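Thread: "does anyone have the structure for this chain?"

Original post by V.I.:
We have the sequence but no experimental structure in hand. Need at least a predicted one for the grant figures.
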Amino acid sequence: MRDITFRGGGELPDPGGEAEALLDAHARVVAWGPGAQRLLGHPAREVLGRRADELLHGSADTADLLRRWEEGTRQASLLLRRRAGEPLEAEVWARPLTSERGERQWLVQASAARTYHTYAFGRALLQALFTDTPFHIDLFDTRMRFIAQNLTERRAGVFRGTGYAGHTMREMAPPGLLDLDALEARQRRVLETGRALINTEVDGHPVPGSPDEYVWSESILPLRDPSGTLIALAHVVSDVTQQVRSRERLVLANQAGARIGTTLDLWQTARELAEVAVPGFADSCRVDLLDSVFSDDEPTEDAQPRTPLLRRAASSGPAADPGPGGAGTVRVGDLDTAATAPGSPFLDALEKGESVLLTDEGVRACPDALRDGGPDVHSWLLVPMLARGAVLGTAVFMRSRSPRRFEPDDVLLAEQIVNRTAACVDNASRYHRERTTARTLRRSLLPQRLPSPSAVRTASSYQPASEHTGLGGDWFDVIPLSGTRVALVVGDVVGHGLQSAVVMGRLRGAVRTLADLDLSPGELLTHLDDQMNRALDERADEVSLVTGATCLYAVYDPVSRRCRLARAGHPPPAVVSADGGVDFVDLAGGPPLGLGGVMFEEREIALDDGDLLVLYTDGLLESRAQDVDTGLRRLRGALSRTPASAAPQEVCDMLVRELLPPGRQDDVAVLVARVSGLAPDSYVTWEIEAQERMVGRARELTARQLASWGLAEESFTTELIVSELVTNALRYGGEPITLRLIRDRNLICEVSDGSSTSPHVRRAQDTDEGGRGLYLITQLAQNWGTRYGERGKTIWAEQPLSG
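Reply from O.Q.:
Generated one for you, tokens below.
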């Protein structure tokens, strides 16, 4: 029947229904409770003696209902009729009774279906909480004594006995289970405030004496009676050990990601790994790197050597400072020879690239040298450090103070952190090698120590745009020339980095070669322009970022105290006079190098003793924030504040400190020279008539001058050189002929004539009467050469002076 649904069983609901009524054997109402009146609206006088059929709605009848009750089905879902006639879904139970006269009667209880379902759900919830839930639930009274507890069989081996009721946690819990003082403090707090404490994490040991640590999540809830009075506390406790451990591992992994690899320094990266691991992951940590990682050679994927050398790169924890007689004997920076001794797990890990985990007996079986954490180490984890298929080293984690052993998840975390560190170490090692290579290249391209001619004191500063490689396209040079002259050079290849540095090195080499030919500044730049064009044509693909270069070439003659300059698209040099005045040399700029087919104008200026000649590249002047004119004004202002006594290096440092544009993206080179002329008594010049007898006269003048200089010991050799040079000028040159002697750090002899014929050394035959002059000079002089001027040439020869 649709209006009646029967269920098996005969128990009544607990604590009972909303309504009660008593029926006789014919289903007539013999008793009617007040709950029934509230549920259906009928007072007792209206229903007593009437059949229950009138209280049913629809096609249901009491005869069928009584039959099923007799058969044992005594719970049913019925549609009852309220007094106003509307149906009411209800749950009905019947219990058989016998009257005093022995007649069958039925005690009927009913509840509205909605009320019954709410009660049923609540009962199911309580059953789930107390029988099927993974949570531990304890009930305490206001004196913090046990009232009830669920799942007691799961905790029977932990607590003392099974009779909890009436006892406190302190009386029942074994020693070391948890902090009982803190628990009671939390309970009192809830009792005093009436507010729940939710999800308090509590550490403890569920098994007395076990090294395993557990973490529980505890919630303490206040329970109140209908009047609102707090009558009990409910503890809901769950095991969150794995969740907490996972969270700790995640936090450690995040810390490792943020703290490891902050620099490109090998030692710092290894130290960061050791500091991250202790104490959050291990009590001690040490990091060993292959000694080859610190070298300038590229690591390969080839098999490691039979006995690899491991160097201690970092250590943290008890092993960090072993102290006198400590277990650890290897300090940071030392080789760890014991780690790769025969039978060491290091060798196996390095060969296989797999982690090694040892606990308890396995640790105790290791040699003491492998347990730098001390004798109490009970858990030892070795993780090889691999990057790009090559072994870089190892990381060892040890636990001694913490009772927890390393777990498989800990191994995975350690491998993740070490792999990240390996990538950072590999980057640092590659950076170290690249930077070393770049520095070596830079040292080969730029002068490491400037020459120190007596007439010029120089200083330089080079600031590359890339701090990583230190390479750029700017360069400077100081080149001693014949006759105590000095060439000062500053150049700038467009761009920066390796490509610009390669072109710069080529141009600098070309300048030095051309300078040896004693070319004039303008002529030298013309030849340099040709070299730049060849570089662009020959390596168009490789130097596609290099589109040109600028250069300033100056030659200072301390005898005449004059300086001859030319520039190719380069900023003008500045002259700071001894009285503090600052002027930029009015010199035609000329096009940059690399355009081809151009001429470069020259300018000659006079310099006084103590004047500063300042050469620089445009990186000192311009940037995105300022143009060249602004940079020139700032440069003039800075130089005007320079003290007259300032050394060239102080001037360089001041310019770099005050003028480097913020956020610069260009290389900067500065060359400062303080000039001074030769003393008048340190050189002498004679006009030589074009007559053969003047050879003897030249020797006499030379001998007399050397005697006045106190160089009589040099007279014989010098007279031979002067004789040959004057003879050569008389025979093959033209007027005017001059002889000049210069006493500097060397003794210099110069003979000039009006011919531009190029002299050359030849080996004369035994029968030849001449042709031995220049050959003789090559044997007597330390160095010799020829330079050309506007009218004629000069042949010079240098001799070292003793002392």
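V.I.: this helps a lot. The chain is about 30% helix and 25% strand.
O.Q.: and Confidence is low (pLDDT under 50) at residues 6-15, 322-327, 764-770.
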